[in-house]
């Protein structure tokens, strides 16, 4: 029985792809060679945390500098480009809150970007814990963030589901001993079919937020 729900943030609860594309493009201006594909970079960005990805890719000095610029652009353009909650997410979160379900966010987002998000849109005040990239030593698929959230909530991994939109999210859930749920609502129809076909039977494939409520309250 599930007694706790943890969520990824970007691509799961909020639409931020256009904002991150603009941030990464601006932050990397002058750093990229002409032969590098910007689409491939943004695809890779979905799989890990902000600063960790940039430092692993560009090295400590350049990655840290680029991440600072990324956060600058995020703060400046969040009000313009942040897409807000996905359809059905607000209703899902309110239903879970009314049920008394403990909830948390475990995200690879930096604290600066999270603060800018909260300043630019209404993030529902329903979460009992928020774990960000700054709070852990390693990004997903390392389960450190999920385990930190569990400890804060006093919850059991075997009674927790983690909802995310990337393979790194699902692997982190597996390593933490949780149920992994794949949020497919941010994906195109072709992506949904392709991703769903590759999921193992123990992963929940969710095509809409309401499907999570249906799974939890059968």
Ordered list of secondary-structure elements with their pairings:
Blueprint: E1 4-7, E2 14-15, H1 17-27, H2 38-45, H3 50-58, H4 60-81, E3 84-85, H5 89-99, E4 103-106, H6 111-120, E5 129-131, H7 144-153, E6 160-164, H8 167-176, E7 179-183, H9 189-198, E8 204-206, H10 209-216
Parallel strand pairs: 1-4, 1-6, 4-5, 6-7, 7-8
Antiparallel strand pairs: 2-3
The first-to-last residue Cα distance is 11 Å
CATH class of the largest domain: Alpha Beta
- The SSE order reads EEHHHHEHEHEHEHEHEH
Mean pLDDT: 91
Binned, the helix content reads 40-55%
- Shape type: globular
Our count of helices gives 10
> Would you identify the CATH H-level superfamily of the largest domain?
HAD superfamily/HAD-like
The unreliable regions are none
Q: How many domains comprise the coordinates? A: 2
Radius of gyration (Å): 17 Å
Structural class, by secondary structure, is: alpha/beta
């Amino acid at each position: 029985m599930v007694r706790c729900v943890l969520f990824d943030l970007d691509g799961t609860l909020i639409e931020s792809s256009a904002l991150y594309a603009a941030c990464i493009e601006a932050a990397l201006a002058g750093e990229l060679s002409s032969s590098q594909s910007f689409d491939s970079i943004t695809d890779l960005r979905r799989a890990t945390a902000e600063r960790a990805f940039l430092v692993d890719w560009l090295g400590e000095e350049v990655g840290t500098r680029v991440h600072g610029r990324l956060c600058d652009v995020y703060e400046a353009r969040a009000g313009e480009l942040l897409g807000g909650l996905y359809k059905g997410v607000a209703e899902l979160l309110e239903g879970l809150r009314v049920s008394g379900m403990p909830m948390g966010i475990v995200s690879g987002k930096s604290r600066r970007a999270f603060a800018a998000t909260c300043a630019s849109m209404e993030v529902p005040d329903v979460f009992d814990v928020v774990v960000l990239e700054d709070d852990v030593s390693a990004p997903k698929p390392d389960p450190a963030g999920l385990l930190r959230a569990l400890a804060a909530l006093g919850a059991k991994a075997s009674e927790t589901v983690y909802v995310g939109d990337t393979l790194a999210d699902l692997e982190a859930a597996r390593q933490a001993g949780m149920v992994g749920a794949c949020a497919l609502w941010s994906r195109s129809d072709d992506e949904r079919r392709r991703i769903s076909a590759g999921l193992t039977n123990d992963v929940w494939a969710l095509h809409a937020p309401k499907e999570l409520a249906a799974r939890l309250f059968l």
